[in-house]
Amino acid sequence: MRASLLQIAVNDDEPISVRRERVAELVRSQRGAADLVVLPELWPVGAFAYEQFAAEAEPLDGPTYEAMSKAARDTGVWLHAGSLVERDPEGPLYNTSLVFAPDGELVRSYRKIHRFGFDQGEAVLMGAGGELATVRLPDTVLGLATCYDLRFPELFRGLVDLGAETLVIPAGWPERRRAHWTLLARARAVENQAYVLACSTAGTHAGVEQSGHSLVVDPWGEVLAQAGPDEQVLTVEIDPAKVAQTREQFPVLRDRVLPVAAPKHRST
């Protein structure tokens, strides 16, 4: 199976409508080159463009949905279209990922569970998702996560329990924490014996330089390919059978134990 990670440059001087069409054409450029195409987190608006979230929020079936559905259909690929700022008519904003089948049908959406920012930014402007999400492809099962989710290993354990073999992580990861990006992507691959497809943005938006350096990691933790800092298409051949082989040859997952907390010592 061939996977292409489209490391999109998100810059303040490019209108969102122009970027949306440009990205759709980049997806179409993968016709015949990839079976699965992955885009970064919040590429339409920028992951740190907090002041634009409300103005640029769109319904799930809005302009980004329409453009990406058509691009998937025109290209004949499975498309993880990264994420957008979703406006729920009956609730808050959400950081929502969309996955399309090769016929352009939306087969799964995922609302980001862990919101970054502590007491500001995304953490206060967006609602939290509450549901793990997987997508079954012909050759593998995708487990969906987004950016800050990468720091929470229990989420990925849950995805593995649901059958995930390939963990897809779109992100808008800042350059100043790039070392964490690579380290955590490899850790999630090793501990879950799964492929990791980690696709970040390039460029600078809202004054925050992005890390780039999207990467593909195999179930043994080896980095199969890694992008540089600029906009780039990273295409990698992956072998879905390697997940089962790794789990069989080194069956660490069967030794999982969740200890029960001991009762607090009671003094007499």
List the helices and strands and how they pair.
Blueprint: E1 2-7, H1 16-28, E2 36-38, H2 53-56, H3 63-75, E3 78-87, E4 93-100, E5 106-111, H4 122-125, E6 134-136, E7 141-144, H5 153-161, E8 166-170, H6 178-192, E9 195-199, E10 204-205, E11 208-209, E12 215-217, E13 223-226, E14 232-237, H7 241-249
Parallel strand pairs: 1-2, 2-3, 7-8, 8-9
Antiparallel strand pairs: 1-14, 3-4, 4-5, 6-7, 9-12, 10-11, 12-13
Structure report:
This protein has 268 residues and is of the alpha/beta class. It has a single domain, classed as Carbon-nitrogen hydrolase (Nitrilase/N-carbamoyl-D-aminoacid amidohydrolase). It has 7 helices and 14 strands. It has helices spanning 16-28, 53-56, 63-75, 122-125, 153-161, 178-192, 241-249, and strands at 2-7, 36-38, 78-87, 93-100, 106-111, 134-136, 141-144, 166-170, 195-199, 204-205, 208-209, 215-217, 223-226, 232-237. Strands 5-4-3-2-1-14 form a 6-stranded mixed β-sheet. The chain has a 6-stranded mixed β-sheet with strand order 6-7-8-9-12-13, with helices on one face. A two-stranded antiparallel sheet has the order 10-11. A hairpin with a 2-residue loop joins strand 10 and strand 11. Helix 1 (16-28) runs parallel beside helix 3. The longest helix is centred in the last third of the chain and has 15 residues, at 178-192.
